[in-house]
């Protein structure tokens, strides 16, 4: 009997491939640490013949090596890089956050930072460095309304007094 349907199913190989250990990239919180402390060292790496471009053209934000400056500059203009900058804007999740979530302490809104692409070799020579500044966000309207809401403690007492006054 012929096959009832074509055997064209490709399976989940493409999904499994993505989770392979060898295709695992550096985690965002580690990259965040790189940006905070290790940027000077990562921008001026020693020549490593094993790495693409001898480890001279590295994007800290995406944790990838490029073969030459042209490729690196082209990468800075791509969607993957811009998406990564956006993802790095929010402060990484920490152990403290998880403890707060488990009931030790109260929730703290993760801070947003201003992310800029790392300086080029030339800009670096001119003294430009990677810096991660916290953006101070204005309170959200809903929160503002809450904080400005009248407190009822005092007024309630006044109200009570007002009610009592004519009776006595
Ligand atoms: Zn990048």
Please report the distance between the alpha carbons of the first and last residues: 102 Å
What small-molecule ligands were found?
zinc ion
Q: Which class best fits the helix and strand makeup?
A: mainly alpha
Poorly predicted regions are: none
Radius of gyration (CA) equals 27 Å
Describe the biggest sheet? 2 strands, antiparallel
Count of domains = 1
Average of pLDDT: 82
Structure description:
It comes from Aedes aegypti (Yellowfever mosquito). The radius of gyration is 27 Å and the shape is flat. It has one domain (14-138). It is mainly alpha-helical. It is built from 8 helices and 4 strands. The chain has helices spanning 13-18, 28-43, 69-76, 79-89, 95-101, 121-125, 141-148, 152-167, and strands spanning 58-59, 64-65, 112-114, 133-135. Zinc ion (ZN) binds next to helix 4.
Labels describing this entry:
single chain, 168 residues, mainly alpha, two-stranded antiparallel ribbon, 46% helix, binds zinc ion, cytoplasm, ribonucleoprotein complex binding, nucleus, ribosome biogenesis, metal-binding
């Amino acid at each position: 009997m012929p096959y009832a349907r074509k055997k064209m199913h490709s399976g989940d190989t493409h999904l499994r491939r993505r989770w392979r250990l060898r295709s695992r990239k550096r985690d965002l919180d580690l990259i965040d640490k790189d940006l905070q402390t290790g940027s000077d060292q990562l921008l001026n790496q020693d020549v490593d013949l094993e790495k693409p471009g001898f480890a001279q053209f590295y994007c800290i934000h995406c944790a990838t090596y490029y073969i030459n400056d042209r490729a690196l500059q082209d990468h800075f203009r791509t969607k993957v890089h811009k998406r990564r900058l956006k993802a790095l804007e929010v402060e990484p999740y920490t152990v403290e956050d998880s403890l707060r979530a488990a009931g030790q302490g109260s929730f703290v809104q993760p801070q947003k930072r201003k992310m800029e692409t790392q300086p080029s070799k030339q800009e670096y020579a001119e003294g430009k460095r990677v810096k991660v500044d916290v953006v101070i966000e204005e309170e959200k309207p809903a929160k503002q309304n809450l904080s400005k809401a009248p407190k009822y403690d005092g007024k309630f007492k006044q109200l009570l007094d007002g009610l009592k006054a004519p009776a006595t």
